Amino acid sequence: MKALIQKHKLENYVSPPETKEISSSELERLIRSSSGCEKTHIAETYLPSLDVSFLGTGSSSTLSGNIGYLRRGFSIDYTISLPLFAVFNTESSYSQINGKVVFNLSRGGILVYGNVRNIDHTAEFTPSLPEIIDEKLLKGITEKDETTPGNDDNCWIGPSSLGATYSASAYFNGYLPKNIKEKIRVFKRLFGDNQFLISEAEWTEKETKPSPIKDPLLVGVLGKRVYLLDSFNCTTAEEYARREFSSGELNG
User: Could you state, in order of their start, the residue ranges of all structural domains in the chain?
Assistant: First the structure.
């Protein structure tokens, strides 16, 4: 497999198809002539499956914030660890995490410095992802919180509710090679809109231009299974322009 699989040692997450591989042209012929009820059979028979539990491992970066201030200056701070990977819809160039961190204390109690309870953290992805991918990728988002001391090491807090939201985005800024575009078009008959690109993530809170995406995986989702369709290198803008719009090489 290509660089992303080798770099993160994902070979064990890839299972071979039920039968030996066939040529791309023969597989395309089968897909074109298939009916709806044959989709799963074709995928299971001719395509390697991918265990996407690796999406919930590792961390690429963190972001921090403050939920708010409580009595006597007690402040609740949080740190969010963001996933090592991002998943992009082939029709969209970005993926966004929208999260919320909430402190709820329905009854009064003692708040002790460094020991925060009653914290609820939720997050979701935009555009939305299939459940099998969404639930694994969400495990790559973790939240850690602590209090900043006020005037005392601890104090009594009445019923309270404080919350803060955060957002982080990853952008797919590579250009797909012609053969990958064609493969997406062919596999659309098999997977519909459930084709995605998995790559290392560079999550950011601001609309900054991240480093070029390299070596993404192209996957398709049918029900509860994910299939590995290809792994490739994206082209730069300059290479894309040369391949797409140039009729030949320039002479020096």
Answer: 3-55+174-245, 59-170
CA-closest candidate to residue 179, choices 49, 28, 40: 28
Q: Are 239 and 176 a contacting pair, CB within 8 Å? A: no
Both tokens of residue 77? 């701070």
User: Residue 190's beta-bridge partner residues?
Assistant: none
- Is the model's pLDDT at 73 over the cut of 90? no
Which residues, 6+ apart, have CB-to-CB distance to 12 below 8 Å? none
Give the angle subtended at the CA of 94 by the CAs of 210 and 58, to the nearest 5°: 70
Contact in structure between 76 and 147 (CB atoms under 8 Å):
yes
> CA–CA separation, 239 vs 150, rounded Å?
57
> What letter does residue 183 receive in the DSSP assignment?
H
- Res. 240: pLDDT tops 80: no
Per the CB < 8 A criterion, the answer to whether 167 and 81 are in contact is no
